[in-house]
C-alpha cells in the first residue's frame, strides 16, 4: 500500500505531535517528582554529606558524652559494617543522581527533536494544501 504525499505528511505530523505530547507529560511527572524530593529536604543527605555523617556523629558523641568510649566504638566490627553500609548507600545515591541527570538530558533532547519534527511536518502539511 502506497501512501500519498498528503497522507505521509499527515501521519508524520501526527506521530511527532504524539511523541511531543508524551514527552511533555513525562517532563511534567519528572518535575512533580523533583518538587516532592525538594520538599522532603533530600538535598541535605547529598552524597558528600552522607560521607561525613559518621564522622560528625562521632564528634558530636564525644562532645555530648566525654566518658563514652568513642574510639573503642569505632574499632568494632559493627562500626565497620555501618561504615560500609553508608558508603554503599552513598555510591547508590550518586549513581541514581547521575542516572536521573542522563535521563533528563535525553528526555529534553527527544523533546527538542520531536518539536522540530512536529514543526517540519506541520509546515509541510500546510504547504501541501
- Strand-residue fraction? under 5%
Structural class: mainly alpha
**Total DSSP E strands:** 0
Tally of DSSP helical segments: 4
Separation of termini? 22 Å
Describe, in plain words, how this protein is organized in 3D:
86% of the residues lie in helices and 0% in strands. It is an all-alpha fold and 129 residues long.
Question: Main attributes?
Answer:
single chain, 129 residues, mainly alpha
What topology emerges from the helices and strands here?
Elements: H1 5-40, H2 47-64, H3 70-74, H4 77-128
Q: Would you summarize the structure shown here?
A:
This protein has 129 residues and is an all-alpha fold. The protein has helices spanning 5-40, 47-64, 70-74, 77-128.
Amino acid at each position: 500500500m502506497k501512501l500519498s504525499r498528503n497522507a505521509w505528511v499527515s501521519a508524520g505530523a501526527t506521530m511527532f505531535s504524539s511523541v511531543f505530547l508524551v514527552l511533555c507529560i513525562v517532563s511534567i511527572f519528572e518535575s512533580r517528582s523533583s518538587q516532592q524530593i525538594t520538599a522532603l529536604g533530600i538535598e541535605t543527605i547529598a552524597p558528600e554529606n552522607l560521607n561525613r555523617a559518621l564522622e560528625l556523629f562521632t564528634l558530636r558523641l564525644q562532645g555530648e558524652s566525654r566518658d563514652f568510649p568513642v574510639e573503642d566504638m569505632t574499632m568494632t566490627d559493627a562500626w565497620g559494617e555501618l561504615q560500609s553500609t553508608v558508603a554503599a548507600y552513598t555510591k547508590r545515591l550518586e549513581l541514581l543522581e547521575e542516572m536521573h541527570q542522563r535521563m533528563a538530558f535525553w528526555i529534553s533532547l527527544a523533546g527538542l527533536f520531536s518539536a522540530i519534527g512536529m514543526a517540519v511536518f506541520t509546515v509541510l502539511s500546510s504547504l501541501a494544501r
